[in-house]
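A student in our group prepared the protein record below, which I am reviewing. This is what I was given:
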Amino acid sequence: MADTLEFNEIYQEVKGSMNDGRLRLSRQGVIFKNSKTGKVDNIQASELAEGVWRRVALGHGLKLLTKNGHVYKYDGFRESEFDKLSDFFKAHYCLELAEKDLCVKGWNWGTVRFGGQLLSFDIGEQPVFEIPLSNVSQCTTGKNEVTLEFHQNDDAEVSLMEVRFYVPPTQEDGVDPVEAFAQNVLSKADVIQATGDAICIFRELQCLTPRGRYDIRIYPTFLHLHGKTFDYKIPYTTVLRLFLLPHKDQRQMFFVISLDPPIKQGQTRYHFLILLFSKDEDISLTLNMNEEEVEKRFEGRLTKNMSGSLYEMVSRVMKALVNRKITVPGNFQGHSGAQCITCSYKASSGLLYPLERGFIYVHKPPVHIRFDEISFVNFARGTTTTRSFDFEIETKQGTQYTFSSIEREEYGKLFDFVNAKKLNIKNRGLKEGMKQSYDEYADSDEDQHDAYLERMKEEGKIREENANDSSDGSGEETDESFNPGEEDDDVAEEFDSNASASSSSGDGDSDRDDKKPAKKAKIVKDRKPRKKQPESKKGKDPNAPKRPMSAYMLWLNASREKIKSDHPGISITDLSKKAGELWKAMSKEKKEEWDRKAEDARRDYEKAMKEYSKADSHRGERSKKKKKKQEKVVKGKGDKKGTTSKSASSKSPAKGMSDSFKSKEFVSSDESSSAESKKEDSEDEGAASPPPSSEDSASGSD
């Protein structure tokens, strides 16, 4: 027969709730480890008094009774496992595993039996229900009635809070059955009564959780926190772990008490009691016991008179009374030499302590995570800056904890610690690479090829060279077409001719009238080319040679179809990423081959660009001449319209002469269209002549 039996999915009934865990039976005894809290119940084989097998809601259950009256219940067994357990109990514990089923008649009249810390309500020889007396928080009596009140169960959606028993009167004199019932309950119930004097008192201790300053009164069986608003009574049996943690500033100490079940303040539950001490605070402590009692009870762990640092005295007294070890940080040291890491959890900043068997975060909210409940950890880049990273922990139950804003200098130390503890790192491959080149943490993205970034760089080079080409070629054209000096000269000559024409008509006031529109025309001439100037740069000649592609783009165009065939259905984004990975992994010799092709394409482009620039210069000269001729034609038309309107509107002696004499400038409406068409034809042939001046018209009239 095997020396041990192990059962993984077993539920222990504790204070009305079912806690999942692992049960192990060995020659030495029975061990149950709670998966949620990590608490271990160890029952020695010599302490076992009785074992009962029965059917329960979750299949079959095992009830164990010890010689000192404690009861342990474990559910979740299969019916087929009874024979195996029964043989094991006979061989190693010398106990007969009895089968007892619960009574399901539904009667409410029966007999109450007190056995150890268990109240059993039986009908005949079968139990109907059982109540662990440690769940009782209060017991009150009335006439023929006893009321039991229970502690609230935080893990259950519905909790049983009260049970009333009717106790019929008896004929026995001097014995009150109600009081006898109540005394049996109170002797085993978890009813805290602050009777007698405290062993010692610590005054005005700073408490972070729950917040405030409290007097701590140490009693033999419980801890009493007395504050200005709230009082808490904490039985030592609810203390799960003790932690003594140094603050990062090396001047303060945290003393953390883990509680299960937690203390309650309204709807708030406090699973941790956190005290903050200064290392400079000293105290002299005298226990309210004589030396013999101190020696007998604490066996040298405490003395009647003690002195030292306040945090040392509190932790020493708590360790002796609770009989638990105090957990301190192990060999971990951060970048600054501290045994903790500054980080943020949820909305608050705090300290993360890597311990020998877990992590603990203080202080708001406090979190304790054991290594054996961690599924994996993950190192992630910070969301806001590259100078920090996030440390993520996911438990086997699926709960995720994210500690953010950790300085990147702490990465190496934390990674080595996690690796040494053999925790599963989700992104191990990536982070090992980061560890080797940790100094390049902030620039790690640049190590990988980015196809989009390469394309943007190429487009930027193209825009720069196009801007240079336009400044060399088209830029000169726009500079010549827009020459303020020449335009001023043309405008001045135009207005001089208008002035002479008006003076021949004999109207002196018209000179001032002609000069006013001259200023307006000059402003218009200055503005028009400025609006057209950027338009000439924006235009791109489709006949211009195309820019050569880089070596990577040449390779990508040649390999795109092959990548698509190797990865059917791949998206454009994934194709770019895959191409970047292939290009990065390509050997230097193959890259040089594509570099040579890119260099050949660049030389061909430069040669074609030279030929294009020569042809473009010839086209530019022809366009300049054409634009100048068009400007002169427009000026001539403006002169004719101005002189005809002035001669018609002015009242001068020349009005009578205009009926009999017609100068060359005068044309009829019928002849204007034919004259304009002739001018257009002459412009196309390149033989257009400037419009006649006022002197020519005068000589013609003569």
Observations:
- The chain has a mean pLDDT of 75.
- The domain at 341-427 is CATH 2.30.29.30 (PH-domain like).
